[in-house]
Design goal:
single chain; mainly alpha
């Protein structure tokens, strides 16, 4: 593309992101509208958009596993797991840690907001019984749901997008190219973050008394989830595309939840799905324009030309940006940026991608509006008469998030740089 085309692409991309961030119009309209403008101007062809720009595997996995998570939630298995664990906890600070551990585990398997809304009643019941502030329980649960966004391939849309953009398979998240992978690094970050929570709540020493409940949970959704993940792992060895595995799992989930199928379809976040479709086309055009390569050369020219410096920059700038913006479009935008920067200084892109995606996933914890799960948790608090104070919120979220990201950053530096 010539200079004029590059400027047009940049302006359209900026307007698209500005409209999406403002939330003054439907975010799907912003990205699809921008894509339409690119096609009208001849900067993107429909064939290129359909066959090259849109990552159908990402969409198939995203839709399919959101359907699976819905029936998993309806199965009441998560409630049963929480109850059984809490039956063995005797001190309040360990009760909060247990709730957070269960939340983190479930969030690695299903949608974060659903986990928070599912764990909220348990937290409310325990806080009332302990005559303690619900604030500490719900904020701790919310940040714990977001800290595991890169612990597995299906934990969160950015992880799925990264895997599809780089060809990573589910097991590559744990051991990759002879080194510990993204998921394993995230796991150590989660452990340190949980220890930080335990330290913050060290003053909560009341005795917990939770009775064992006979919760009629079904196992079908749990089995479906693990079969779906198994298919993602072994399917490519037999020529099965990941998107078909995800989409197929979603169809089975729809059949399993057929009695509330209408609810599953109508409550699914279609706006985000179509927004992703549009943003794929915008970023594809942006990447093909050469602007991202120009950005890489600019940064190197300004002295940001060492692997260590780039890793630190991308990790912590991602934390800052994801605290105020949606992590899906940011991830789609930054993957080609990381690749371009890595190529410009002659290194593999993996450490930069890892730092960026971890910062993106966890950085949303910093503020009450940085992640959807946080917004819902604060909404529950307000319904119960609590005013969410930013400073009090950040007293929990900042040490927790910084501990997780810093641990991951150090591990990436030691192992991958």
């Amino acid at each position: 593309m010539d200079g004029t085309d590059k400027i047009l692409v940049l302006i359209i991309a900026i307007v698209c992101y500005a409209l999406a961030l403002s939330r003054k119009i439907n975010i799907a309209y912003a990205s699809l509208g921008a894509s339409a403008v690119l096609m009208i101007l001849g900067l993107l062809t429909p064939a290129d958009a359909f066959f090259n720009a849109i990552n159908w595997d990402v969409l198939g996995i995203y839709w399919g596993f959101m359907m699976v998570s819905y029936v998993f939630m309806k199965s009441r298995m998560p409630e049963l797991i929480a109850n059984r664990i809490l039956c063995y906890v005797k001190v309040e600070r360990w009760a909060i840690l247990s709730l957070c551990a269960v939340t983190a585990f479930l969030s690695a398997l299903m949608e974060n907001v659903g986990v928070v809304l599912m764990m909220a009643p348990v937290a409310i019941a325990i806080s009332k019984r302990m005559e303690s502030s619900l604030f500490h329980y719900l904020i701790a649960i919310a940040v714990s749901s977001n800290v595991v966004t890169t612990i597995s391939m299906v934990a969160d849309p950015p992880a799925i997008i990264l895997a599809m953009a780089t060809g990573m398979k589910p097991m590559d998240f744990y051991w990759f190219l002879g080194k510990i992978g993204l998921g394993t690094i995230t796991f150590f970050g989660v452990l340190v973050a949980m220890a930080t929570l335990l330290f913050q709540f060290r003053w909560m020493k009341k005795v917990v008394d939770v009775t064992r409940e006979d919760i009629p949970a079904t196992k079908g959704a749990s089995i479906l989830f693990f079969l779906g993940v198994g298919t993602l792992i072994i399917g490519p060895e037999f020529g099965l595309r990941p998107g078909f595995a995800g989409f197929g799992s979603g169809l089975v989930a729809c059949y399993m939840g057929r009695e509330y199928l209408k609810e599953m379809v109508t409550e699914f976040d279609w706006n985000s799905l179509f927004f992703i479709v549009g943003i794929f086309m915008v970023i594809h055009t942006l990447s093909n324009s050469g602007l991202l390569d120009d950005l890489g050369k600019f940064m190197v020219g300004k002295g940001v030309d060492s692997p260590t410096g780039l890793l630190a920059f991308l990790t912590w700038i991602s934390v800052a940006f994801s605290a105020v913006m949606d992590n899906v479009p940011y991830t789609i935008l930054m993957i080609p940026v990381c690749k371009s920067l890595a190529a410009s200084i002659g290194i593999a892109a993996w450490p930069l991608l890892y730092g960026m995606i971890i910062g993106t996933g966890i950085g949303g914890n910093i503020t009450p509006v940085g992640a959807t799960a946080n917004v819902f948790a604060c909404g529950v608090l307000e319904k119960h008469g609590y005013k969410v104070n930013l400073i009090e919120y950040m007293k929990i979220s900042v040490p927790f998030s910084v501990a997780a990201v810093l641990t991951a950053h150090i591990l990436i530096q030691i192992i991958w740089i």
